[in-house]
Amino acid sequence: MVVAHRGAAGYAPENTMAAFYKAKELKADYIELDIQITKDGEIVVIHDQKVDRTTNGVGEVKEFTYRELTKLDAGEWFHTKFRGEKIPTLKQVISEFYGQMGILIEIKHPALYPGIEQKLATLLSEIVGEDNLSESQIIVQSFDFELLQRLNQISSNIPLGLLVKYRVQGISKAQLKDWTSIVQYINPNKALITKKLVKKIHSYKVKVIPYTVRDKKSINGLVNAEVDGIVTDYPDYIVDFMINRKSS
């Protein structure tokens, strides 16, 4: 699976509709995005807990109402041609792309937003339908396993992924058994991927989607390690690699 990191973030301002449309144009299978919650309880798509880096505003997302966020420009920082891009709501993104592409949702900074798992589960159920979630091509991931456990208790139908930023080769079988009791994906940093590790994770009947590829030279090793997908800022790099690999 080709997973477009924050949309096609190499070509358009991350986590904007422009980036998600670009990902679709480049034939990504999934778009990956990050969520935060506004002062008035709207789930919005933005990576940082502050708006400073990717908009012309200053301050924490949770201190803005959604109406206030819509007044910020989320595109010009990347390039002037994206002036006017806004921070989208998660509902807007799902409504636009659900059924056309998979959607990989990362819950950021859950401690800042008590109850975010319930709010997200409710939104997904309303849009997709509780009975359809397990086959919906919507995945929720986080570095916080306890958060994923809470989400699984609320809705066991939501496919889950555990992000891993440290070496997992040394993780015990008991730990992997614990993780894979609820998650369908274990997604490590790409630097941690080896064929042995992927085989070990696959033995627990879960998939592996490493993050984040920003260069072409990383692709071959990941594909040879038999990962199930790759998160990338440049979806076309992976698409072109796979096309060339098949043709050769």
Automatic annotation (TrEMBL):
Q: What GO biological process terms does the UniProt entry carry, in alphabetical order?
A: lipid metabolic process
Q: Which GO terms describe its molecular function?
A: phosphoric diester hydrolase activity
Pfam families tied to this protein: GDPD
Gene3D superfamilies, per this entry? Phosphatidylinositol (PI) phosphodiesterase
Q: Which residues form the GP-PDE domain?
A: 1-242
| PANTHER family reported in the protein's UniProt record | GLYCEROPHOSPHODIESTER PHOSPHODIESTERASE, CYTOPLASMIC, GLYCEROPHOSPHORYL DIESTER PHOSPHODIESTERASE
Name of protein: Glycerophosphodiester phosphodiesterase
- Origin organism is Metabacillus litoralis
